[in-house]
Specification:
single chain; 475 residues; mainly beta; Porin; eight-stranded antiparallel beta barrel; disordered N terminus
Length: 475
């Protein structure tokens, strides 16, 4: 934990623009121990170089792709220290995370990992290597000491700015839809059923006719509430016109909510129409590769395209100067929260205090109003696999020097861990008190009340969160 804090301080309090970068890591892991499964680890990291030593910090996710735990996901933070010698490098890393699902013996859901890796650079942007990880869910029955294959790619985004930028064609899409299911798809369904889906997709245009996509979504209402998927793929637009047909292909993982996805590996194919680059209507087919599960999927998406300095890869870019661009502050929110509630869960047991790890982001709508998207995963209390997804607002109402007092509110979709969440939807409201540590970093204490309905889980929540900010430039 001390190593993670040191890395974060070195990154966020540095003002030099040289020697800084962002990267994505992919790691294929097959766990040993009493709960065998394979998962794909993905990391998005920011880096700072000090001579031949690199420090990094960022987000880490795991998605089950084989075994019997499709829908098992882990979200957390990862810190890394790396030493480089020309093409070779060695690193040590620490992960603190929480997650679970799909009936896996994850206990409270909290996980820690210690990792060492050796990598060989291929050109200026990529590296391949082998890592050794020791990970443990200390209150559950998942632990492993295992090797893994690792691939790293340096992304083009610079989190500390200079005067000239590489700009990319990107978009964020809010995705909604309906899954049409039968008895082969989910154990809760005897004949037919439907499930409402909501998600977010980030895309980068790499050719005039081709987008790269990354999508995260879940179902909190319907026959399979608790279902979640995470996938990456491509969208092909063969002709350019106000009404554009498209074909889409994505590979990823999914499960939970009684979906019969086995280990979780899945492919999603689809076709549809994109209208004026702002709206999509399509029909997809979500197919688990290890079982008979396969479901038609009617989707609608609202797209928000932007040309910015944030992109996946160095393709379809052009140069823009800082003076000719607008900027938007993006805030990463990470920390810990505790849910406190009376009553009994779905197993008839009294509710225990639930500790949770918390990840999210905020973007400014006005000078004091922020739009937020957040997720919370249980880490203590015996509620592994309980998770919340939230969309809401923060308002900084009163400011005095470096102190900020405000209110916040969210709409929530939640489930898992035996918690009685009623129909799976809630509203929340509360207050926050913040201290600005420097221009790009503040720490906040938060208190709020969540309401899931009469006789449901209605906890008070308190927490501490760290909020580093980054500038994204666009036109």
């Amino acid at each position: 934990m001390r190593m993670v804090k040191l890395m974060l301080i070195l990154l966020l309090f540095s003002t030099e623009t040289a020697g800084q970068a962002t990267s994505m890591q992919m790691q294929l892991e097959s766990l040993n121990g009493p709960t065998p499964m394979s998962w794909m680890t993905q990391r998005f990291l920011i880096h700072k170089d000090y001579n031949s030593t690199r420090f990094g910090f960022g987000l880490e996710t795991q998605s089950a792709i084989s075994g019997n735990y499709g829908g098992f996901y882990v979200f957390g933070v990862h810190g890394i220290a790396e030493k480089k010698w020309k093409h070779l490098s060695m690193s040590a890393g620490v992960t603190l995370a929480t997650g679970g699902g799909a009936g896996a013996p994850d206990g409270d859901g909290f996980m820690y990992r210690l990792e060492g890796a050796a990598k060989y650079a291929i050109g200026m942007k990529q590296a391949v290597g082998i890592s050794i990880s020791a990970l443990d869910f200390p209150s559950g029955n998942i632990y492993s000491l295992h090797p893994a294959l690792q691939w790293s790619y340096t992304m083009p985004y610079k989190w500390q700015t200079s005067g000239v930028f590489d700009l990319f064609y990107t978009s964020i899409s809010l995705v909604t839809g309906v899954l049409f299911l039968d008895e082969n798809d989910a154990s809760r369904i005897t004949t037919n059923g439907q499930s409402l889906y909501a998600g977010v997709r980030f895309s980068q245009g790499v050719l005039p006719v081709l987008d790269l996509d990354l999508q995260l979504g879940a179902s909190a209402v319907g026959a399979t509430d608790g279902f979640m998927d995470y996938k990456a793929g491509i969208t092909w637009l063969p002709v350019s016109m106000p009404l554009e047909p498209y074909l889409r292909l994505a590979l990823g993982s999914g499960g939970g909510g009684s979906m019969r996805t086995a280990g979780g590996l899945a492919v999603c194919t689809g076709l549809g129409l994109r209208m004026n680059d702002r709206f999509e209507l399509g029909m997809d087919y979500w197919n688990a590769l290890e079982t008979r599960m396969g479901a038609p999927f009617l989707t609608m998406s609202a797209r928000f395209p932007v040309i910015s300095n944030f992109g996946f890869i160095n393709k379809a870019k052009y140069i823009g100067s800082k003076e000719n661009l607008k900027s938007k502050t993006m805030v990463l929110v990470t920390g810990s929260r505790i849910n406190l509630s009376q009553g009994t869960d779905r197993n008839g047991l009294e509710y225990e205090p639930m500790g949770a790890l918390f990840l999210g982001g905020k973007i400014p709508m006005k000078s004091s109003l922020w739009l937020s998207g957040e997720t919370l995963w249980a880490a203590t209390g015996g509620y592994g696999a309980y998770a919340e997804g939230m969309f809401g607002v923060y308002h900084d109402t009163w400011k005095h020097q470096s102190v900020v007092l405000g209110w916040n509110g969210s709409v929530i979709a939640a489930g898992g861990g035996g918690i009685n969440v009623g129909k799976g939807a809630a509203i929340a409201a509360g207050v926050h008190l913040s201290k600005m540590l420097n221009k790009g970093l503040r720490v906040s204490a938060i208190a709020r009340y969540k309401y899931f309905g009469m006789d449901a889980y209605n906890p008070w929540t308190i927490g501490i969160q760290l909020e580093p900010s980054f500038q994204v430039y666009y036109k």
